[in-house]
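Problem 12. The chain below contains 454 residues. Write out its predicted structure in token notation.
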Amino acid sequence: MGSVLVLSGYGLRLAVQRSHLVIEDGIADRRRVRRLSRIDKDLKRIAIIGHAGTISLDAIRWLHDVKIPLVHLDTDGRVLAMIAPDSPDHPTLRRAQARAVDSEIGLGIMRDLLRQKLDGQERVLRMFTAGQLALPRMELGRRGLVRATDFISLRSAEAQAAAAYWGAWGRVRVNFRVSDQDRVPEHWLTFGQRVSTLTGSPRLAVNPANAMLNYLYAILEAEARLALLTVGCDPGVGIQHADAKSRDSMACDVMEAVRPAVDAWLLDYLDSRTLRRQDNLELRNGQCRLMPDLAKELAQTAGLWSLKLGPVVEGVAETLHRHATAPERPRPWATSAKPRREAPTSLPTPLTESRRKVQNKTTLQPSVEESETTDAREVPIAMFSGRVTREWFLHEIVPALRLVPVEVIAKAVGLSEPYCAKIRTGRGLPSRRHWAAFTSVVQGYRHCAPLQHP
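Solution.
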């Protein structure tokens, strides 16, 4: 039976009879019936592929008691449902996880996860000739990762490395039986592009290699969710991946470090396995879907990814816990030689061009004595007009915005709170016409670090 039991077919049934879990699956005369006792220790996972069947409440309770997770995968690899054992209750850890997106600790965690990803991808590229030629371009992404100071820069470095990485995969061969090679589309014979022509993203793959990779990533995501629950983290509260409905964003974050291990497994699999035409199905829109026999074979790898994810998830949880229990650092104004000045009750609003010209002539011309003692934080935004660069905004304004409440930023710049939250955490860049408004918010709060002149 192995550590993972994969169920497929029609009329699936999970029920409890005489304290045993009875499992039925299969098609027609190929049906199977299994009986599991509560002391069976070999089974670690149950994966269901398909959507026709039943599971009783007694079976759910039975799985919960013996702590065997159950994952329900759709035929296209989407995780439809999951039954997982109870996770430890660590409110302090979850609170630190939620705050990580607004702090340097979250940036450090994601930088480390992406560093592990790029290290793994370089090892994968060394497995074949075309991959070795892409190593110099991968190095550019690594350098960008080291220099990154916000999530936008992290994503930019990751994208640069991904372009070189997946570009090298294009000519990886997919072996079919000789009798089937004339019966399959030509684009099925290679890995091709990672981006599907149907969606502009990896979703809805149009050839078997990419469909298999998507399916393996779906299994990896399910295992990442289980691993996070095991250590007491919330799988839905991500750091780099934005919060989204019906997506485990934190699972998507931690699985980045293990993706290269999945890629390496698939590369070996494609090199050693000869596929059959009936292993895949081409839908009417051109999408390639895995047939149950091949999907079951891939689902058996869940145990491998569980072992790979363990150290990664434990490391993230340890970092968050250490940060949550560390003594609180004094605020910038607590150690400053200057007395703290109260924040203004109403923040300055962005100036129109005409008002800016008038104000420059009247109120923005400091005297000689004033210019010698004026703090850099008190320089009005109008004096930066025309010289605010993208680099200066990312390195000076975005980090300082984290000290300002989201609702204050939104009210001052006239944008929505969710959008301002993305800007505040470095996961988005506003239009250039809003840069002056965001800079005004930072200057309005005197407890920000002094701004360096661009």
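Discussion. Strands lie at 4-7, 12-17, 20-25, 32-36, 45-49, 53-55, 70-73, 79-83, 280-282, 288-290. Students who got a different answer should revisit the alignment rule from Section 12.3.
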